[in-house]
Amino acid sequence: MRKFFVILFLVIAIVGFIAYPYVKSGYNMYKEAIEEVPLQEKIEEIKSKENYTKLSELPQMYINAVIAVEDHRFYSHGAIDIISIGRAIINDIKAMSFVEGGSTLTQQLCKNMYFTQEKKIERKIAEVFMAFEVEKQCDKDEILELYLNTSYFGNGYYTVKEASLGYFNKLPNELTDSECIMLAGIPNAPSVYAPTENPDLAKQRQKQVINKMIEYGYLTQEEADDIINGM
């Protein structure tokens, strides 16, 4: 037993030694970003957008679809989701590359607000530090609302309202259930899933979102079948 704890300690020490430069660099990246533009200033800037869309303007079906496909434990975890991170690490090790990020909606919001889409360890760490700051200053509904107004939907659309009008010629509260679910799937890969660019791929993604909604209890199979049959 003693030998096991010695080995465990050595492994932790080695991992910590290797990780330290990345953590330090990520923390510095976070500090530089938030000092250049304080969080409240960044939030006010986002909320001043012409087509900023409030959560109250969105159909519940759309909100449910986003949470199901992006971060189904959003309302129950904090800035990070240990379960998702653990799963992502295992999958990344298996693939020997960054195939899964394990990011929460809060982390994705931080990336949208302050950082690039580049898959670098330092950027991911900076995103984590920023996520804790965001969760201290904002409640979950505000975080979700900000996320939906900083996500890219393709075709130059950066808010739900812009994407809803652009793709369906409707305000968000006029969307059908099918349209809500399609819209929720676009930000994962806007250039691929934009319905005006790749309608078949957009529908495939829509079905993926529906499956997630069934898995996490937002839709029954019967409700999902009705939506699919009405597409």
SSE layout:
Elements: H1 2-36, H2 39-47, H3 60-70, H4 82-95, H5 105-114, H6 121-137, H7 140-148, H8 160-168, H9 177-185, H10 190-193, H11 199-215, H12 221-229
Explain how this protein is built:
- With 231 residues, this protein is an all-alpha fold.
- The chain has two domains: 111 residues, Biosynthetic peptidoglycan transglycosylase-like (Penicillin binding protein transpeptidase fold); 76 residues, Penicillin binding protein transpeptidase fold.
- The chain is globular, with a radius of gyration of 19 Å.
- The termini are far apart.
- About 5% of the residues have low confidence.
Number of domains: 2
Could you tell me the CATH topology label of the largest domain: Penicillin binding protein transpeptidase fold
Strand content: under 5%
* Biggest sheet details: none
Features:
Penicillin binding protein transpeptidase fold, 2 domains, mainly alpha, 231 residues
Summarize the structure in short.
With 231 residues, the chain is mainly α.
